[in-house]
Design brief:
Helix content: 25-40%
Distance between the termini: 62 Å
Largest sheet: 6 strands, mixed
Order of helices and strands: HEEEEEEEEEEEHHHHEE
Oligomer: single chain
Number of strands: 13
Strand content: 25-35%
Shape: elongated
Length: 295
């Protein structure tokens, strides 16, 4: 009983840990930090994803309590990505303690690279300091579709890890957990995933052989490995029989679990759809801060 409880506690914490990692490591997570301006520390959070249905806000709190005026001014420095456009400078407007501006909305998968420059008297600071943040625009995905997709991917990770632990500790639920892992990964990644992508970027599939989208490719690989593991684990010994280290499918399940762990360790959407402003087509590029050095 204690072994079973310990196994499920480890399973839950591993799943939650990977979910947090996927959230904070992904290239669509807000770019956060702070700058020192005069005697004041200013926290900044820049969006890196936004809807195509509106301009993208840039909003920074520079005065607690919102006095009528502020001696801090701001400018957003931006251009389309990836292009060699000249950098544009957009003045920010002060109101109620915040400096705000709006960057123009872009087509599906269109990207902007930008930074914020704050000034007080003769002192200026820039964030990010060395490399611009990159924001991608996407279509709106219906909440029900997105919730179902995310739920299935969570459960796929959950049952995948559970099957791996069952295999390592010679548990009897290997066949059931393997089938559940494959079913949820298939539904969430290879069925609902393309539906989400169609809403967001107007393409069902941008992985191999049509493109090089890492998200599509890694989910296809994960589902394939788990399909093999399910096939092998379907030959596992019947309930009540002795479970030995030679049980068919055991090490296939471990391999499939390790594959999913590696896949979930790769930040989501890191090499995804990008609108090419020269050709008007969607390509796949790294969704990271640009290598453009500012200043």
């Amino acid at each position: 009983m204690l072994k079973t409880i310990a196994k499920w506690v480890v399973l839950i914490f591993l799943t939650l840990g990977f979910l947090v990692w996927q959230k904070v490591s992904g290239p669509t997570y807000e770019k956060s930090g702070s700058v020192e301006l005069g005697s004041q520390k200013i926290d900044i959070e820049l969006l890196r994803t936004h809807s195509i249905n509106g301009d993208m806000p840039v909003r920074i709190l520079v005065a607690e309590g919102g006095p009528a005026t502020s001696d801090i001014s701001g400018t957003v420095i931006w251009r389309r990505y990836p292009t060699k456009d000249e950098w544009a400078r957009l003045p920010m407007v002060y109101k109620d303690g915040f400096l705000t501006a709006e960057l123009p909305r872009q087509p599906m998968a269109g990207k902007l690279e930008y930074s914020v420059e704050l000034a007080q008297g003769s002192q200026t600071v820039q964030f990010p300091q060395d490399e611009a943040a990159v924001a991608r625009f996407k279509g709106d995905v219906p909440n029900l579709v997105l919730i179902c997709h995310v739920f299935c991917m969570i459960m796929g990770m959950f049952f995948s890890t559970g099957a791996g632990l069952e295999a390592l500790f010679e548990g009897r639920a290997l066949k059931t957990l393997s089938r559940l892992a494959f079913a949820f990964l298939l539904l969430g990644g290879l069925i609902l995933g393309p539906v989400v992508q169609k809403y967001a970027f107007d393409a069902y599939w941008t992985g191999w052989p049509f493109g090089s989208d890492w998200t599509d490719n890694k989910l296809a690989l994960g589902a394939l490995v788990w399909a093999l593991a399910v096939w092998r684990s379907s030959q596992a010994l019947a309930p009540g029989a002795d479970y030995t280290r030679q049980a068919p499918g055991r090490w296939w399940a471990v391999l499939a679990t390790v594959t999913i762990i590696v896949i979930y360790s790769i930040p989501h959407s890191i090499h995804g759809s990008t609108f090419d402003y020269e050709t008007g087509e969607h390509i796949q590029t790294m969704m990271l801060e640009t290598e453009t050095h500012l200043g």
